[in-house]
Amino acid sequence: MPLQYANLDHITRRAMVEELDEDIANGTMHISPRLQPTAVGEYQRLLRDALRYYDDLWLEERIVPLLVDFETRHTPKGEVVAARLPEGAARVMAERDFNLYYMRGIARRAIAEGKHDVEVYRARLSMEPRPESSVLEGAHIPAEQLLADLRTATPLSQAAPRLGRPNSGLSVRLPSS
Predict the structure, then answer these.
(1) Which pLDDT band holds residue 166 (cuts at 50, 70, 90)?
(2) Which of 143, 146, 149, 171 could connect to 110 by a Cys-Cys bridge, CB 3.0–4.6 Å?
């Protein structure tokens, strides 16, 4: 089931695609090591289509054949081993990337509309949310700071790493007032 994106309309989608296009043009788009190296262009095309017209579930269904079969992992003893990708790898990747550009699009939109903050909300129902995620629900984050943080590999604020964490179930929306 896709995340529930509170403000996913044509205005937000345009901002999402602009963020993706800037990343591609600048060479700053995060490419998952779970993606086959020869499939990067196809993934970028599918991600752009998902951002423009669909959602993370649509993206998940199409990227399964683009993923590698095995990845390297470190055992508790520090040994490097090859392991099959987890069952939900495509879901986690699609949700993470779609939500990342959604949050960036919302922050970009908030700035353009003269709103200073965005609001954190739970976009996926969770019976047992992580305590660090629950603390963020309802919080207001400066839109400019969040956008800057989500554009970098090493975020400056404490909120962005938790929001950008795979499987958090959190996202942001325009504030209600």
Answers:
(1) low
(2) 143
Calculate the CA 137 to chain-centre distance: 17
How many structural domains comprise the chain? 1
For residue 161, give its domain range.
Answer: 10-173
- Residue 155: both structure tokens together: 């975020």
Q: Is residue 74 within 8 Å of residue 110, measured between CB atoms?
A: no
Render the burial of 66-103: b for 16+ CB within 10 Å, e for the rest: bbeeebeeeeeeeeeeeeebeeebbbbbbbbbbbbbbb
Taking alpha carbons only, the member of 89, 168, 91 closest to residue 128 is 168
Claim: this prediction has a pTM higher than 0.85: yes
Q: 159 pLDDT exceeds 60?
A: no
Does residue 63 lie within any of the structural domains? yes
Q: How buried is 38 (Cβ within 10 angstroms: 0-12 exposed, 13-18 middle, 19+ buried)?
A: exposed
